[in-house]
Design a protein that fits this description.
The protein is an alpha/beta fold. It folds into two domains: 162 residues, P-loop containing nucleotide triphosphate hydrolases (Rossmann fold); 83 residues, Helicase, Ruva Protein, domain 3 (Orthogonal Bundle), CATH 1.10.8. 47% of the residues lie in helices and 11% in strands. Strands 2-3-4-1-5 form a five-stranded parallel beta sheet, with helices on both faces.
């Protein structure tokens, strides 16, 4: 809609995860380093947490694009809540048959891991939105990892979730699970300075030649978004629409204030984020 008006090749602020447009701030570099460390060092469990919209899934997508083809990867995005279905979800994630009793499935899963190991392939299970898993399901994941024997790591597990996951792993019931976590990181929000850099980076990545957001507009977005990339994207995208509709070449603080007020009314932002 506004791309041609501002000389952009594509929309710079889509809310869909885009590994091609990652802003590599300090926290995102650290989070990805821990993901890579977990993969390269055969960590039993890797845990990455962060607020909703902080960029966790985008980092996962980036990781998946870089993984060695010799790695067999299974991804679970819709986390099961009951214990009965976990192993079925795991088998489906690896495109394996998932019918039968639990005992039959477990034997089939063990054989799958052994077969992959015999071919020189690592097996990694990635669970997104892992904060939805119950204590019982997390314990079942730990038990599945018991397939690992001696020095051989047949199964690696990467859990990605909201801060509640980090709190769950501190519970006494999950002490044994927490001991299996070899690599972990909590992805924090961007600072105010990083928000301005993030906005400029996303714009320049799609062809912007000039600074399209004023310094004051960036400060307002930083405060209202609380440094969460997805919220920054929502505010910036809408601000560009407003600015385009007004025929303005630069997004001003006044435009951003209008966007914030509108998003508050629709519940996208908490009222506490209001800027005056």
């Amino acid at each position: 809609m506004y791309e041609a008006f501002y000389g952009l090749q594509e929309k710079p602020f889509s809310i869909l995860p885009d590994p091609e447009l990652i802003y590599w701030g300090r926290n995102h570099r650290m989070a990805f380093a821990m993901l890579e460390f977990g993969v390269l060092n055969n960590a039993g469990f890797t845990v990455i947490t962060g607020e909703i919209g902080s960029g966790k899934t985008t980092l996962l997508r980036y990781l998946l694009k870089r993984l060695d083809p010799k790695i067999a990867v299974g991804v679970i995005s819709n986390t099961p809540r009951g214990t009965d279905g976990l192993l079925r979800w795991v088998m489906m994630a690896f495109n394996q048959p998932f019918e039968g009793t639990y005992a039959a499935l477990f034997m089939r899963f063990q054989q799958f891991l052994l077969d992959e190991h015999s071919k020189g392939r690592h097996v990694i299970l990635i669970v997104d939105e892992a904060q939805n898993l119950s204590i019982e399901v997390l314990e079942e994941l730990r038990m599945l990892s018991n397939v690992n024997v001696d020095k051989y790591q047949f199964l690696q597990v990467i859990l990605v979730g909201q801060p509640e996951l980090k709190e769950m792993l501190r519970m006494p019931q999950l002490y044994q699970f927490a001991q299996r976590v070899s690599s972990d990181f909590h992805l924090k929000a961007l600072t105010s300075d990083e928000v301005a850099q993030y906005i400029d980076y996303r714009l320049s990545a799609v062809g912007a030649r000039d600074q399209l957001f004023s310094d004051e507009a960036c400060k307002l977005i930083a405060a209202a978004s609380r440094g969460i990339p997805r919220t920054i994207n929502i505010l910036c995208d809408t601000a560009l629409v407003y600015s385009f509709a007004s025929g303005m070449q630069t997004v001003t603080a006044e435009i951003v204030k209008q966007v914030i007020e509108n998003k508050e009314e629709f519940g996208v932002l908490p009222l506490a984020a209001s800027i005056t």
